Amino acid sequence: MELARRALSAQHEIASVLSLFEQIGRRAAVPGTLDFTFGNPHEPPLDGLVDAIRSQVEPRSDTWFAYTTSQQPARETVAAGLSAELGLEFEPGDVAMTQGAFGAISLAFHLLTDPGDEVVVPVPGWFCYPPMLRASALTPVPADLAHDTFDLDLDAIARAITPRTRIVVVNSPANPTGRVLPRDQLEALALLLDAESARIGRRIWILSDEPYRRIRFSGVPFVSPAAVYPWTLIDYSYGKILLAPGQRLGYLALSPLLPRGERDQIREAYDPVQLAIGWGFPDALMQYAVPALEDVGLDLAELESKRDRMHGALAEAGYTLTRPEGTFYLWGDAPRGDGDAFAASLAERGVLVMPGSLFDRPAHFRISLTATMPSIEAALPAFRELA
């Protein structure tokens, strides 16, 4: 049997991530291992999450567990929340409820691209962009972020654009760096994409990947590209703020600034495309819970204290790290410039981190701060030993 080329290409792109999954699974099973790899919960679920789901388990009609597309109460809740957060007038019809941000990103790709199109992705950036694109017969085109600040590099984006470009992905707050992009950079990107769209004769869209939008520190402001560039789609996941990535709930939303004709065209395509790509809607119970979940979230003050403790201790030990403005990650330079070797050495000491090679930056490493404060304290001696 011969697999499809796009399946083989996606398999190749994701191979290193799957290998890490397997290694982490084996090592995490060892008692006493301290896991700082993925943004998984390390403590009991948030009370508000459990209460919201529990309150929807008892059926209230014969069709409570029937097939369901995007539920109107969920869309109304999301539209109201987006309007309040971003200062834009979202309508419920602008929102498609999805299986987390994965589902929203997949929906955006299927709405806007044809096989062979190109999508510009940030580097360092989320390691699942390339395999998702390959599986959709699309081509990921990397655009480096600014070396030290991780700001947008407009020259790099301009070089990445070709006549096949359809989407530029913007991730803020950014995984893995924690950078929150300011308005002036987004406005400059909007001007660039307007000019490049005119040059190549087709509209280039922004996919604003915002699953960490509500996880920001010290009052850092947030501006979505949707506020400055009408041709923007927003993807979001509740799994980050709820620390419940296994409960798949998210959405895709249109910028309300999009001209009405194009806006209506995409809105009308939501349900048919979500059905066609494999019933891309969240489970009924998760949609019923959305109104209760909108105001539930992890303790940002506690998360900020973990950031400050880990960042301060590692900086004192001699590490060079970003001080994230958002997300729950620390991004640092690996000792001797070898993130894989550093991660392996830490693993030998019972501490697991993510090597930067997964983000196409092999000289770096990433720490997830969803681990507990006692775990952070217990891991610091290993970090100091290897500094």
Q: Can you describe this structure?
A:
There is one protein chain. With 387 residues, the chain is an alpha/beta fold. The protein has two domains: 5-46 and 298-386, Aspartate Aminotransferase, domain 1; 63-293, Type I PLP-dependent aspartate aminotransferase-like (Major domain) (Aspartate Aminotransferase, domain 2, 3-Layer(aba) Sandwich). The protein is built from 13 helices and twelve strands. A seven-stranded mixed β-sheet has the order 2-8-7-6-5-3-4, sandwiched between helices. It has a three-stranded antiparallel β-sheet with strand order 9-12-11. Strands 1-10 form a two-stranded parallel sheet. Helix 1 (5-28) runs antiparallel to helix 5 and helix 2 packs across helix 10 (284-293). The mean pLDDT is 96.
Précis, in short:
By secondary structure, this protein is α/β, with parallel strands linked by helices. The chain is built from 13 helices and 12 strands. 43% of the residues lie in helices and 14% in strands.
